Amino acid sequence: MDRVVMYIDMDAYFASVEQASRPYLRGKPVAVVGSGKRTVIVASSYEAKRFGIKTGMTKGEAIRKLPSLVFVEGRNNKYVDTCVRIHEILLRYTPEVEICSIDEFFADLTGSLLLFPSPADVAVAVKREIGEQFGITCSVGIAPNKLVAKIAGELGKPDGLVAVEKDDVERFMEGLPVESIPGIGRKMGAALKALGITLCRELRDFPVSVLRRRFGIWGDYLSFMARGIDPFRAQDPGGLPKSIGHSMTFEKNIGDRMMIRARLLELSEMVARRLRKEKVVAKGFSLTLRYPDFTTFTKRITLPFYAPGGRMIYETVTALLDSVRLKDAVRLLGVSAFNVRRFAANPSLFGGLDREERLWRAVDDVNDAFGECSLHPATTLLCARRHWVISPAYRPHKSYPYRRQ
Amino acid sequence: MLTRVGERVVAGVVFRKEGQKMELKWFLWKGRKLEIKKTTYVWRERDGRELIRRFVVTDGKDLYELSYRQEGLMWFLEAVETDG
């Protein structure tokens, strides 16, 4: 049986959810932002995109471009819950659903097609259900693999449905610009252009040996992808995250090292909590700093061992901070963990789990019962609590769904 | 314009068995009974172990955000939003 993959991408997700819940915003240019003064745009409606409003723009930049733009404070829980409920809808059609990010899903329909007339029928039903339940639209791509399904879905935006049959894949890919292949950004696009390649057809016909010399193993991948062959294995649903990180932009630039350390402790604890939730440990850590002039730099370190908790992460990133001569106050700080592996509880021979681990388990239990930050290190009292909006790339944790009533 | 309220209110709700849906019909606020014309959005969130159901509703004129705290069986009017 030929494989059939459906890709579902919500259109301007955060902004559409806000327009659905506030009908007076429908048809208006809307940008979803955080609550702070220095927040950036995390999503914009199609009406705003038409005027060049993009994710990552500051409020000031956006207002200058479009004075009539309506700013809406993002509500993380609303978007996460909607994502979970869309996932539940998809699970009614196939058990094989992968949440790629908060607004993107892959559903493998191969085994479900005996129950439904065609993949397109499933797509239409899913689109209708999502529309009826949430008042938002999505674009769907159907193809024999994830790569082509994603490209097809992106082509149909907004509210489209593009299906590519197995025999049509190569023809479908031929005329597309190379940038439509996921993973080929501006930099790679420019490098390919320098080789005289702008279309997938040209990439397909280009000698693989030259591509390999220029891009390494990616040269082979590029050649495959230009033919509509997905060179990557399906993602293991229980797969490890590549990295886990948090960053925050401050209302006022911070120059005081003690305050920077307090913020780093807060960020380290946030990262550590997510590592514990995902049941992973990491040995690579990075510290990101952004100065008021927007120059940003990241310093990374890989430890010879996997760090068990927040204190170790904090000590590692403060050591990175101490190795840096700050040229100015900072407007953004970020802490990230990478190089992760599954956590295997390693109780000591006599004392069971070590004291610190038991402590953090207790802290997690309290926060699970009474809400995030009910219990936190006293040093972080120096940090004003703030509300931020999750990135659209955020992937809800699998255990997020609620207790069934 | 969004105005935060955060007041406890009394609400009239129909609990539907099919689809386990809650349908808000009216709520009392400032001595007035506000009839709900439409629920525009519903979502759930957790505050620790407590499940909170949030509803954005309209009386045909303004938008109201209400929350239902499942542990205490309490309704709150969280915010009122008027256009303009």
Question: How far apart are the termini of chain B?
Answer: 6 Å
Average pLDDT value of chain A? 87
Beta-strand proportion of chain A? 15-25%
Order of helices and strands of chain A: EHEEHHEHEEHEHEHHHHHEHEEHEH
Tertiary shape of chain A:
globular
Kindly give the count of domains of chain A: 3
Structural class of chain B: mainly beta
- The strand count of chain B comes to 7
Q: In CATH, what is the class of the largest domain in chain A?
A: Alpha Beta
Helix content of chain A: 25-40%
**Percent in strands of chain B:** over 45%
Q: Could you describe the 3D structure shown?
A:
The complex is a heterodimer of chains A (405) and B (84). Chain A is an alpha+beta fold and 405 residues long. Chain A has helices at residues 13-21, 46-49, 59-65, 76-91, 119-134, 146-155, 169-174, 186-194, 200-205, 208-215, 217-226, 257-278, 310-322, 355-370; strands spanning 5-10, 30-33, 41-44, 70-73, 97-101, 104-108, 138-143, 161-163, 243-254, 280-290, 296-307, 330-342. The longest helix of chain A has 22 residues, at 257-278. Chain A folds into 3 domains: 1-164, Reverse transcriptase/Diguanylate cyclase domain (Alpha-Beta Plaits, 2-Layer Sandwich); 170-226, DNA polymerase, domain 1 (Orthogonal Bundle); 243-382, Dna Ligase, domain 1 (2-Layer Sandwich). In chain A, a hairpin with a 7-residue loop joins strand 2 and strand 3 (41-44). Chain A has 14 helices and 12 strands. Chain B has 84 residues and is mostly beta strands. Chain B has one domain. Chain B contains no helices and 7 strands. Chain B has a 7-stranded antiparallel β-sheet with strand order 3-2-1-7-6-5-4, with no helix packed on it. In chain B, a hairpin with a 2-residue loop joins strand 2 (21-29) and strand 3. The interface between A and B is medium-sized, with 22 and 17 residues.
